[in-house]
Specification:
Strands 1, 2, 3, 4, 5, 6 and 16 form a 7-stranded mixed sheet that branches. Strands 17-18-21-20-19 form a 5-stranded antiparallel sheet, with helices on both faces. With 458 residues, it is an alpha/beta fold. Helix 1 packs parallel to helix 9 (310-325), helix 3 packs across helix 4 (81-105) and helix 3 (48-67) packs across helix 6. The protein has 3 domains: 6-143 and 263-325, FAD/NAD(P)-binding domain, CATH 3.50.50.60; 151-260, FAD/NAD(P)-binding domain, CATH 3.50.50; 339-443, Enolase-like, domain 1, CATH 3.30.390.30. It has helices at residues 15-26, 41-46, 48-67, 81-105, 157-160, 177-188, 208-220, 271-274, 310-325, 354-361, 376-379, 408-420, 425-430; strands at residues 6-11, 31-35, 109-112, 115-119, 122-125, 128-137, 141-143, 169-173, 192-196, 224-226, 231-237, 240-245, 250-253, 256-258, 262-264, 297-299, 339-341, 347-351, 364-372, 384-392, 398-404. The protein contains 13 helices and 21 strands. It starts with 5 loop residues before the first strand and ends in a 28-residue tail after the last helix.
């Protein structure tokens, strides 16, 4: 019998922590998990799930308008914010219960409260200590905001899901996927929305064509997209707030939401005292099997700041369970991880960007298509879908696929399987398309775009 209370103690009941706990228990380990906020972590409560529900809500105004072209006499008579929030809360409560039952049915003991590390094998929660052979840190991340005058008036995505009332005007600050998603959400449900980003173009790290195309489509939908703009200070007024930008210009608004990054949630855990190595931003450093610099302490998910995606955290949690309790040293495969951004229109992407492909492989062929989807040939809506494929000329292997347009996430999931299997352009070309769909464009691209003209030497 072990000298420890548990074989594994997990700190954080988010997606990765729950997966590791459940499967470790299924493999015969004695497991406990501590959570001080909500079951399911960021994704279930203030991330993927409520955000996608809000995206659905935001798109209905276009659906109502477009239905007229198809013979429907439909009219949106108003939008009730409270109904959306309350129905979202009901669904989240249901999911919280599912997570709790999954843990309980697996034999995992749930400890409610904030856990801190006492030593390499001991965790304290609410004044009680628990010992474990292995401790897994899966505490996730938390939004960060800049230290500017008036920062107390800023809300983040966390608070945005629970606003008491819908603002008439909103500024969303940031250049990542959370910023563009919330700009689309607010705009879609009738808020006069401004998106500000300090850089020349948002969505850094995504393919350049995706970034440029999305910016144009968001502007078409009425979002005031302002690049190279940054807020210097915020002042509360009787009418709302005034944001003063670094160039001296001012913008009046009712809400200022920042989506300028998330930091690993490690403050107060006691990691430093135990000598757990961390990056400058607080991310816990781990090896391929997610072990930290302290042999008995592991970490997964957003707290290690690799790929901040729920399915990645699930894969990492599964790897830890197999490594520790099934004698199968495992890691997570970060190659060809597909992702979607639920902007409006949405983005789907897998594999290398054009910039990455040219750097790594040199001679590549680019296939790109921009078109109006069949649906909008009747509605007249000027929304353009963009699809792009990057191919290694030497091997014919497809290196990356990107899309901006309706159902991008759904379409790219299947494409990700093909890339994972090593599909070549010839395989795509020999695949018969499903007609009429937007997706068939990926198997009918025949002519690459012209090669960029090299600039003449001065």
């Amino acid at each position: 019998m072990s000298d420890y209370d548990y074989d594994l103690f997990v700190i954080g009941a988010g997606s990765g922590g729950v997966r590791a706990a459940r499967f470790s228990a299924n493999y015969g380990a004695r497991v406990a998990i501590a959570e001080d906020m909500f079951m399911g972590g960021t994704c279930v409560n203030v991330g993927c799930i409520p955000k996608k529900l809000f995206v659905y809500a935001a798109h209905y105004h276009e659906d109502f308008a477009d239905s007229a072209a198809y013979g429907w006499n439909a009219e949106a008579k108003g939008f009730d914010w409270r109904t959306l929030v309350e129905n979202k809360d009901t669904e989240i409560t249901r999911l919280n219960g599912i997570y709790e039952r999954l843990l309980g049915n697996s034999g995992v003991e749930i400890v409610n409260g904030r856990a801190t590390l006492v030593d390499a094998h001991t965790v304290a929660v609410n004044g009680k200590e628990y010992s474990a052979k292995t401790i897994l840190v899966a505490t996730g991340g938390w939004p960060v905001v800049p230290d500017i005058p008036g920062k107390e008036h800023i809300v983040t995505s966390t608070e945005a899901f629970y606003l008491d009332e819908l603002p008439k005007r909103a500024i969303v600050v940031g250049g990542g996927y959370i910023a563009v998603e919330f700009a689309g959400i607010f705009n879609g449900i009738g808020v006069d929305t401004t998106l500000m980003y300090r850089g020349p173009l948002f969505m850094r790290g995504f393919d350049q064509d995706v970034r440029t195309h999305l910016a144009g489509e968001m502007a078409k939908k009425g979002i005031d997209v302002q690049f190279s703009t940054n807020i210097a200070s915020i002042e509360k007024t009787d009418a709302g707030y005034v944001a003063t930008c670094e160039d001296g210009s001012t913008v009046e608004t009712d809400l200022i939401m920042y989506a300028t990054g998330r930091a690993p949630k490690v403050t107060g855990l006691g990691l430093e005292a135990l000598g757990v190595a961390m990056e400058d931003n607080g991310a816990i450093i781990v090896d391929d099997q997610f072990k930290t610099s302290v042999d008995s302490i592991y970490a997964i998910g957003d707290v290690i700041d690799r790929l901040q995606l729920t399915p990645v955290a699930l894969a990492e949690g599964m790897a830890v369970a197999k490594t520790l309790f099934r004698d199968e040293p495992s890691t997570a495969d970060y190659d060809h991880v597909a992702t979607a951004v639920f902007s409006q229109p949405p983005v789907g992407t897998v594999g290398l960007t054009e910039e990455e492909a040219r750097e790594r492989h040199g001679d590549v062929a680019i296939f790109r298509s921009t078109f109006r989807a069949l649906k909008h040939t009747l509605t007249g809506r000027d929304e353009q879908t963009m699809m792009k494929m990057i191919v290694d000329k030497k091997t014919d292997k497809v290196l990356g696929v990107h899309m901006v347009g309706a159902d991008a996430g759904e379409i790219l999931q299947g494409i990700a399987v093909a890339l994972k299997a090593g599909a070549t352009k010839a395989v795509f070309d020999s695949t018969i398309g499903i007609h009429p769909t937007s997706a068939e464009e990926f198997v009918t691209m025949r002519e690459p775009v012209p090669e960029p003209v090299a600039e003449a030497a001065e």
